[in-house]
Every structure is written in C-alpha cells, then in structure tokens.
Design goal:
The structure is a homodimer of 207-residue chains. With 207 residues, chain A is mostly helical. Chain A is built from nine helices and no strands. The longest helix of chain A has 23 residues. The radius of gyration of chain A is 19 Å and the shape is elongated.
Chain lengths: 207, 207
DNA sequence: GGAGAAGTAGAACGATCGGTCTTTCTGCTC
DNA sequence: GAGCAGAAAGACCGATCGTTCTACTTCTCC
C-alpha cells in the first residue's frame, strides 16, 4: 500500500525519483531502485523517459515549478520588500525541515560539473529565474541597485541551504534571517520601519 | 612526461585524485581513471589505500590541511578584524580561479548524504575547524557575539563558493566582499563608519 | 648475495550500472 | 468481439564498477 500506488506510472516514477534523488543523490540512485520503489517495470520506465538523465531533468524541473508556484501565490499587495522577506523566510523554513538535505539544484550541480550538460542547464535555469524574481522585487521595493540586492540574497540563500545541510539548521536559519534584515536595511532606499512580527504562509525554497 | 612523474606513487595518486575528484566529482571518477592518470597499477593503489573511499578521505584531509596552512601563515599582528578580512578575501580569490568548481567539501557532502559516513565526517571536521577559526578571530576583534559573526561568515563563504560555481565568479566575489564589509561593520564593537554608505542601527544585536 | 618490501603489468572476480528485449496480461475503443 | 496501446514481469546485453589475484621486476638493507 504505497502512498503512490494509485497514481499513474509516470507520476509514481517522478514522485519516487524526487524523493530518492533528493535524499540520496543522483548517481547513487540507480534505475533498479527507481523502478522497484515506484512499483514500475523497466519497460515502463523507458517508455516515459528515454534515459535516466531525462528523469533527473524532469525531477529538477518539477521542483523548480513547485517553487515558482509558491512564489506566484504571494499576493500582489505584498510586492517589494515584503515579498523579499517572505521568500527568504521560506528558505529559512526549508532549512529547518526534518528531511532537509540542502538545495536540490546545487546538489545536482555538484554531481554534474559540465556546464553544457542538460542537468546543469536545468539548474542554471532555475537559479537564473530565482535571481530575476528577487531582482524584480528589489526593484519594486525601490532599491537603488536591485541587481546587487538580488545577488546578495541569492548568495545568502545558497549559503544557508548548503551550509545548513551539514548541521545546526536552527542557527543557520536564524543567521540567514538576521543577515537578510541587516543587509536589506543597508540596501533600501529609505530608512525602514518595522521588520518585527511577520507571519509567513508561503511555500518552498528558491533557486 | 607527466608533471607528477618523479613523485612517489602514493603522492602521484593523491595529486591525481585531488585534481580529478575536484574537477569531476567523487562518484564519477573511477579507480581506472585514477590509476591510469597517476601512472600507477591497481595493486599499488590498494597497497596504499585499502579502498577508494580512503583515498577520498585522504584527498579531503589534504585539502583541509592546505587551507589550515594558509591560515596559519597570517602573521600574529594581523589577528582579529584584519585576519577575518584576509580569510574572506582568499575565498573571493578562490571563486575567481579558472578551475574553480565550488567548495570541495560541500560538493563531497552533496555526494555522501549519510552524516555518519567517513567522507561526511571529514567534511564536517573541516567545516567545524573553519567556524572555530573565524570565531577566534571575531573574538580577538572584540565582537560582542563572535559565534554569530562566525556563523555569518561561514554562511557567506558557503554561498559564495557554491553559488559562484554556477557562473559569474567576478560578481559573486564582489558581492561576497561587500557583504562582509557591511556585516562586519554591523557586528563590530565600535561603530566604525563609512565602508559603503550604510547606516548601522546599533539596537538590533540582542538575543 | 639473499630476503623482502614495493613496484609494474595485466587478467579476472562478482556486482551493479544503464539500457533493450520478449512475453503476457489488462483495459480501452471501434 | 477485434484490435491495440500501456503496463507488468523478468530475462538479457555489454560496459563499468570496486576489488583481488598471480607473475615478474626492481630496489633497499642486512
């Protein structure tokens, strides 16, 4: 009675791949594991994905889409500074998750050094989207150098996610949010006000 | 002739492993590649290292030692704030290197999810040493919360190294150093002015 | 000069890798 | 009911994985 038993074979494969690839790595998880845990035969696997590599790319694109959906749910009246905070808060939340194991995209990049490889391409697409999203919100917040703000927040995100995968997720999350607060204050056009009690109901991590 | 041809077989293996593991990943590089490029036979390989895993650990320990040696060369009269800047500047330099491919330790952690695995242990040892080093220097610089300063700088380092591996190393290096400047100013005991037009709000350091 | 460690050279081990194949069964549509 | 696509089940492929083995050579040290 697997939790994925009633899904279509392709979806079972994708869900199993997402779980195993993230938890154990891309090279470590073989096709045998995937088809066994997905309750699917090898023939079915290769009917839907011409190669394991394609499943990896599909896994990354799927995760990217989840994150984009979560960001898209931020209401329009929270554009700008508030959106930046919500996004970074959701990163801090991700670090604290029990099954947290770093950023799926950066982990994938570590396993695929060749920048021209499709897997790396998928990683860089997501990273570029995340940067652009932050840049837009920084511009909406009136930052004088939204590119720099976005680069900074991406750097903080990458550091929190990859460093947090080694341990002490609570402290990493706190350190991240404090750094965001301090640095946003320095980058903002006008001396800011509150920054105290924000409630977060956003989804997942970013780029 | 190979540049490593006159070294002892063990050193040739370590040097080759360091180059290949960093450039191409741990799982990707097999024993065949290692012995071929090191000009060593398989028997010699297994005479010096009981398993490939041991070579990986030796590779990580070697790289850690190189970094510790470099930090140890910082003269005593530069302890504190100056040492912190020197260390972070060397990180920024690393990102700009032509063969840069991210942090060897974080990349290794991405390939070895099990925290109890010897490879992960080696990664966390280095990470812990680096944190402690920054903490000591932050304390020497008189920071009120040297632990937080160290956590912050570790986070910035991780983000610069892993994010920088995806592209635009110059900008990542600049972003890192600017963030270091801004955040060190906020964390230092005496409000040292200027840096780059920021305002230090001295009230937010509690907790 | 003889012992023995350490090197080279290369075959071979079982296991697993990603990927292909045949066969059978189920469920849908005409 | 006929036809057919999709999936199940599992044998099978060549290649490569990490590892072990035998046989021969070279060097060092007593």
């Amino acid at each position: 009675m697997s939790s994925t038993s009633e899904l279509a074979p392709r979806d079972r494969l994708l869900r199993t791949a997402s779980r195993l690839f993230y938890a154990e790595g891309l090279h470590t998880v073989g096709v045998d594991r995937l088809v066994t845990e997905a309750g699917v035969t090898r023939a079915t696997f290769y009917r839907h994905f011409p190669a394991k590599e394609e499943l990896i790319v599909a896994y990354l694109r799927g995760r990217s889409q989840e994150i984009r959906n979560a960001v898209a749910q931020i209401p329009a009246h929270r554009r700008g500074r508030e959106a930046l905070l919500l996004i970074m808060q959701s990163v801090a939340e991700d670090v604290r998750r029990a099954d947290f194991r770093g950023c799926a995209f950066l982990n994938a990049a570590a396993e695929y050094p060749d920048p021209a490889h499709p897997v790396r391409r998928a990683v860089e697409e997501h990273h570029a989207w995340f940067f652009q999203t932050l840049r837009d919100q920084a511009a909406a917040a009136g930052h004088t150098d939204p590119d720099h703000t976005a680069r900074l927040l991406v750097l903080l995100r990458d550091g929190a996610l990859q460093g947090g995968a080694l341990g002490s997720p609570d402290r990493v999350g706190d350190t991240l949010l404090k750094a965001v607060n301090d640095l946003l204050a320095a980058a903002e056009p006008t001396g800011r006000g509150d920054a105290a009690g924000h409630d977060v109901h956003s989804g997942t991590q970013g780029g």
